Amino acid sequence: MKKSLPLGIVFFAGVVMFFQHFIPTDQSEFIYKYANDWLICIGVYAMLLGIWSLIRVTLHKARHDPNERFYAIVTLVSMGIMIVAGWDVDNLRAGSLFMNMFNYILIPVQATIFSLLAFYVASAAYRAFRARTVLATLLLFTAFVVMLRMIPLGYISELNQYLVAWILSVPNLAAKRAIIMGVGLGMMATSIKIILGIERQYLGGD
Amino acid sequence: MPLYEKLKNIDRRVIYIFIALSVIIPLVFKIAFTEQASPIVQNIFDKIESLPEGSRVILSYDYSPSTAPEIQPMADALTRHILEKDLRLYNMALWAPGHNIATETTDRIIIAEFPEKVYGEDYLNLGFKAGNEFLIAVILTDLKKMYTTDAKGTDIDSIPMMQGVKNLRNFDLILSLGGGKPGLKEWILFAGDPGHIPVAGGATAVSAPNLYPYYPEQMLGLMGGMKGGAEYESALMKIYPQYKNKSHPGIDLMGPQAIAHLVIMIFVIIGNITYFIARKRGEER
Known about the structure:
heterodimer; A: 3 domains; B: Rossmann fold
C-alpha cells in the first residue's frame, strides 16, 4: 500500500494529463487549469519549506560549528530584518528601510559576487585556453571572433558582426536545437518510465 | 629564468590586477564607444515603434540583483521607449527580487522622467507571484485569478488599466528580462506559443545563445548581455535624441567591458605563445 498507492496516483495523473493535452474540450481545459492551480500551491509551500530548511540548517551551524557560527548568525539576523522590514506593502516605497537595504546592501553585494567571475574567467582562460588540438583551435578561434564583437574596431567590427551573427544563428543554433531535442526525448522517456512505475527513485530510492 | 617561463608561470594575482585596471580606468576616464543596433535588437525596437498608442505591454523583471548591472540598462531603455510611445506598461516579476527592481526602476525612470504619467492609467506594477511557468500558464487564460490586487494592494478591478484585460491574450507584447529560469524561454513556451502573443526580451550574455533557437519565429528579438542593452539605448537615442542627455548605463559600461575583453584576449594569446614555445622545446605535448 505504501508504494502501490503513490504509484497508482502517479499513473492516473500522468495518463490523464497526457490525454487532456490532445483533447481540446472544456473538461480537459478545466483539468489543465486545476492542475496548474495545484502546482502553484505546491510552489508556495515549497518556498515555505525552503525558508524552514534554511533556518534549520543555519541554526545547526550556529550551535555546533564554531567556524561557521558568525556567518550563520549574520544569515539569520539578515533574514529576520528583511522579513520584518518588508512585511507591510507600504514598505516597498522608495526610501523605506526595506528598499534602502535592497538598493544599498543586496544589489551591491550580489553584483560584486557575480562580477568576481570575470577574474576567474580571465585566469582560467589564460591557463586552459590552448590550441592543443584541431577542435580546441576551432573553439579558440570561435571564442576570439565572438569576443572581438565587444571591441569597436571600425570596419573590422562591421565585418565581424556578420560572422558573429552567422556563428550564433547557424552552428550555435544547430547544436542548441540538437541539445534541446535530445533533452526533450530524454524527458519523455523518463516521464514514461515514471508513469509506468519503472522509475521509482522519487519514492525514496530502492 | 627565460621570459616565456616567467609568463608561463605568471601569478594569477597579476591577471587579476590587469582585469581590475581594465575595468577601473575606462570607468574613471569615462571611455565609451558608439554602438549600433544589430537586427535581433532592432526588431524589438521596431516592434515597440509600430504599436499604436494605448497598446498593452508586459515588462517582466525575471532577474535578481546579481545580474542587474547587465540587465538593468535594458529595463531602463524599454521603460523609456514604452512610455515615450504612450503605450500602457504592466510591470510584473516571476522572480521575487524582480518586484523590488521594478519598484526602483519606476522611482528612478518613470516618476523622475515622466511625471505626467499616472499610475494605474499609464503604468502599473503587478508585483511578484510565486508559481514560475505555471503562473504564466494560469494567467494565459485568467489573469485575475492570480492577480486580485496590484503590488500596492489596490483591487485589480478598480484600476483603469485593467479594464478589458481578461488574460495574456489581451496584451500586444510581452517583454521578459532575465536569463535564468523562469524567464524568457518560459514566456515563449507557456504564453507566446499557445497564446500567439509576440514575445521578446533580454538575457545575460551567457544565457543569450541558449535562446537563439526561438528566434525569429517564436521570439521576435533578443538583447544579449550589456551589449544588447547598449545597442537598444543607441537605437532609442537615434530616434529620440533627447535621451542623449539622460543616463545610458549600457553604453557607458561597454567601455570597461570592451577593454576587459581585449585584456583577456591578449592574455590568451600570450598563454598560447608560451605553450607553443614550450612544446617546441619538448617541455609540453
